[in-house]
Structure formats: C-alpha cells, structure tokens
Amino acid sequence: MQRAMLATLAAATLFPALASAQSPKAATYITDEEIKQINTLPGVDRQIRIVDIGHEQFAVGIIHRAAPVAGRGAGAGGGAAAARGAAPAAPAAPCGEEAAPPPAGGIPGGITHESQTEGYVIVSGSGTLVTGGRIVNGRKSAPESDVTKILNGPSCSGMIVGDDVVKRSVKTGDVIIIPAGVPHGWIDIVDHVDYMSLRPTTGGVIERGYVNPALKK
C-alpha cells in the first residue's frame, strides 16, 4: 500500500501537467442565446460544445426534428454525398437481428448506440419517443460518418420491435435518459420537437474541445 501511494505522489510531482489535465478546475457556461443561435442553423443534430472534463468528454447539442413530409422517409434525398455528386458509399454492414419477413408492427427509423448514453431535455414542441425493444434488419453506421467521429460512436439503425417497447408522449420540460444499447426513435411529431442533447463519453467517441464554428464568429 505504501509503495503504491509513493508511486502516485511521484507521478503527480514528475507530471504535474498530466495531473492538472485530469482534473479541470474551470466551469463551462453555455448561454440561452448561444443555444438559440445554434438552433437556427440547418441540420438535425447540431453540437454546441464538447468539454473535456478529465476522465471523459461531455457534449452539449441542440437537435431539431420536424414532422415527416408526406412521401419522404428518413434519409430521403440520397444524403449529402449524393447531393455533391460524389460516388455512392459502400453498402452498410448488417447489424441487429435478421428477420424475413420483418415482424408486424415494427417501428422504422430506430437507432441504438453501442457505447454512448444520451440525455434529452425537451425545449419546444412535442412528439412520441419510442424506446426499448431491439433492432431488426439494421445497418451499421459508416466508420467515416460524423455520427461515428464526434457524436454517438458505432451505431445500428433499423426497425424497432419487441414486447418491451415503450411509446411515451413527451413535451417541453421533460427529461429522458437513454443508456447505451437501448434502441430509440421518434413518431407522431405533429409540427416539430427540439431538445437539448447531453452526451458523456469515456473517450474515443466524441471530439475533444469542439466548439461550434458559429460561436467563434
């Protein structure tokens, strides 16, 4: 025990910068004005800041989901690469359970993250959040995607099925915590739902020190 304590004291003496980096002392403030500014930007999942808190990263973002447009499903339009005229990406690898035909009553558009827990704080609008169950006939996120690099890490998207699926109507002020590995998705968004996204991670998933470029102007 004494030897271990001496080794710890020696490390703190020899590497004070490392010890300091592991124990941040300053708080990070994100104003209401900054949140509203980022929420005016295009896109769905907009990160505000990603803070190094020593033993892990902590990401804060604002997500906007509009009501579905008739005749367009999730991901319609071919994606950003198709819009730029780039070559189509290689087919995504399968994930989740395989079922042919898929189970009746499944909910399309679900996703689960291998190692990323998420917290939601509803700030405006309403909808029905679907959680639980399992992903069937899913596809893995591409390794080079933004989702993998700075947001949720390796993920699996597909249909949500199962007897333990929960459908919960949420409104402004509600808070939801979705552990890693739990499928989730949205249905019945009448107009929109906006929510703060809080993502802690132990490293390797979220980009360190990110600040939305709009806040640097």
Q: What's the SSE blueprint?
A:
Layout: H1 2-14, H2 16-21, H3 32-38, E1 45-52, E2 57-66, H4 79-83, E3 94-95, E4 107-113, E5 118-125, E6 127-131, E7 134-140, H5 146-151, E8 155-161, E9 166-170, E10 175-178, E11 184-187, E12 192-201
Antiparallel strand pairs: 1-2, 2-12, 3-7, 4-8, 5-10, 5-12, 6-9, 6-11, 7-8
List descriptors:
217 residues; alpha+beta; five-stranded antiparallel sheet; four-stranded antiparallel sheet; 5 helices; 17% helix; 35% strand
Terminal residue distance: 52 Å
Low-confidence stretches: 4-21, 71-88
Order of helices and strands: HHHEEHEEEEEHEEEEE
* β-sheet strand percentage: 35-45%
In percent, how helical is the residue content? 10-25%
Largest sheet properties: 5 strands, antiparallel
Description:
- The protein has five helices and twelve strands.
- It starts with a helix and ends in a 16-residue tail after the last strand.
- It is an alpha+beta fold and 217 residues long.
- A hairpin with a 4-residue loop joins strand 1 and strand 2 (57-66).
